[in-house]
Design goal:
The chain folds into two domains: about 1-205, Alpha-Beta Complex (Spore Coat Polysaccharide Biosynthesis Protein SpsA, Chain A); about 220-295, no CATH class. About 50% of the residues lie in helices and about 15% in strands. It has helices at about 10-15, 15-25, 45-55, 75-90, 105-115, 135-140, 145-155, 165-170, 185-195, 220-230, 240-245, 250-260, 260-285, 290-295; strands at about 1-5, 30-35, 60, 95, 100-105, 120-130, 160-165, 195-205. Strands 3-2-1-4-7-6-8-5 form an eight-stranded mixed β-sheet, sandwiched between helices. β2, α3 and β3 form a beta-alpha-beta unit. The radius of gyration is 20 Å and the shape is globular.
Length: about 300
């Protein structure tokens, strides 16, 4: 098994928790590390080299290959790791771990049973988000618990923060290099379209990113809708758009329950506007093409 991490100034951004991320990974029996590091300083790769040396792990370090795009993205970093995996190693499993994700004790004990199932091509662990207080409040007032919400979100868009991928399930994938977001959805859809099953590790781990620092740009919001529409991740219809358009009272009501009356109108309108725009963009980019054809042939062009 090979572990891969994509990083950009992670040692500085994650801080003291960066070591805890790596220590938590030792429960997984990987023998080598693929580090795709697009950092501005050498601190991250120097830390990972010390860790690899201390624990007897082979280490391969590269920057993102750009694949014809003009700058590194999450997609170029993921694809670089995947290509190195196929070029340099013959192992059956590639394990993606994010730089701010601490595996909970017992993650591997639960995951190893799924790895042994011959039809499983992807094993994903729930991302618990202890720092996302506002989102947690919103989820609770809507009647969901943390585990159910995380699983339903994964079913829509996948996730690569703590994910095992079988070699044959991943073989041939080409992630569009402009995907700075939803590259995880692309990979999950690819695995499904090749006929492989996925499993969920409920032990999961703690995602340390603050809820207001996702690292996304404004354009990424439009990419999310564009890719979601192309891959049919969510319903794309006038009915779903009209439901969002008429949903302002509900957003204000739940915002009042989650955040209090003082913030109810502001937060409710913000959430409502975001949802209406997103549903409109889904309609705008609606395609009749089979999503499996899209991911298998990697035929999706950047949005205009």
């Amino acid at each position: 098994m090979i572990l891969s991490m994509i990083t950009k100034n992670s040692a500085e951004k994650v801080g003291a928790d960066f070591e805890a991320v790596w220590v938590s990974s030792l429960q997984v029996p990987y023998r080598a590390i693929i580090l795709v590091d697009d950092s501005d300083t050498p601190k991250t790769r120097e830390f990972v080299k010390r860790f690899a040396d201390a624990h007897g792990k082979e280490l391969v370090v590269e920057r993102s290959r750009l694949y014809g795009w003009h700058k590194p993205t999450r997609a170029t970093a993921r694809q670089t790791a995947i290509d190195i995996f196929f070029e340099r190693f013959s192992d059956e499993w590639l394990f993606f771990l994010d730089d701010d994700f601490i595996l909970r004790s017992g993650w591997w004990e639960e995951a190893r049973g799924y790895v042994e199932e011959p039809r499983v091509g992807l094993v994903w662990g729930i991302d618990y988000t202890p720092r996302w207080q506002e989102r947690a409040a919103w989820v609770r007032v809507r009647g969901f618990d943390e585990v159910t919400h995380a699983i339903e979100n994964f079913k829509v868009r996948g996730g690569l923060h703590d994910t095992l991928l079988r070699r044959r399930a991943l073989e041939g994938v080409k992630i569009p290099p402009w995907l700075n977001v939803f590259e995880d959805a692309w990979v999950k859809k690819y695995v499904e379209c090749k006929g492989w099953e996925w499993r969920i590790v409920k032990t999961g781990g703690d995602h340390l990113r603050d809820e207001t620092t996702g690292g996304y740009e404004r354009a990424d919001f439009y990419i999310m809708a564009y890719v979601s529409s192309a891959l049919k991740l969510e319903p794309v219809s006038w009915r779903s758009f009209l439901k969002a358009l008429l949903g302002l009272p509900g957003y204000v009501y739940y915002s009042a329950k989650a955040y209090g009356l003082r913030l109810a109108l502001q937060r409710g309108i913000d959430k409502w506007r975001h949802r209406v725009i997103y549903r409109w963009l889904l309609l705008r980019h609606k395609r009749n093409e089979d999503p499996c054809h899209v991911v298998i042939t990697s035929s999706l062009s950047p949005p205009r």
